[in-house]
Amino acid sequence: MEIQFILNKKQVTAEAGADTVLLELLRDLGCKSVKCGCETTNCGLCTVWIDGKSRLSCSVLAAAVDGHEVTTMEGVEKEAEEFGEFLAREGAEQCGFCSPGFIMNVLAMFRELKNPGLEEIKEYLSGNLCRCTGYMGQLRAIRNYMAAKGYAAEDQEVEA
Questions:
Q1: How much is the pTM?
Q2: What does the buried/exposed string (b/e) look like for 101-122 if buried means 16 or more CB atoms within 10 Å of the residue's CB?
Q3: Using one digit for the tens of pLDDT, what is the confidence trace for 83-141?
Q4: Cα-Cα-Cα-Cα dihedral of 49, 31, 93, 45, to 10°?
Q5: Which end of the chain is more exposed for a tag (fewer CB within 10 A), N or C?
Q6: Contacts by 118-125 with C-beta closer than 8 Å and gap 24+?
């Protein structure tokens, strides 16, 4: 079936089978930041935004985005690069395989939550798995990013 949607601010027309998941279609369209990690909606590696909300593209049929807007990390490259620098400074990017999905969720969190506290951050990002770095470096990177962006950080203390 033919579907039309906006992908990273550009109108796209694509062919998708009735059982094609969005993850597969996006990768076929060149969005290599969207990765398959678990196929069970448990890792967060395939996170994209559909109409501005974080979604796991492995759990969405491609046909469901017909008429909608989809954003991958390729569509927020400058923002993603800026936050990625904070991850790198904390040594929290390691192999980088999980970074695109994690970054997409972090950026979505800042769009959705105003000045989140540490517990809100942990809850919001609980679906993102990282096998290399653990989570302390990621949390420090978020705290430092928040400080650079002028967010208050009273309860943002993260152990070393």
A1: 0.88
A2: bbbbbbbbbbeeeeebebeebe
A3: 999 999 998 887 778 889 999 999 999 999 988 999 999 998 888 887 777 788 899 99
A4: 50
A5: C
A6: 118/155, 118/156, 118/157, 118/158, 119/155, 125/44
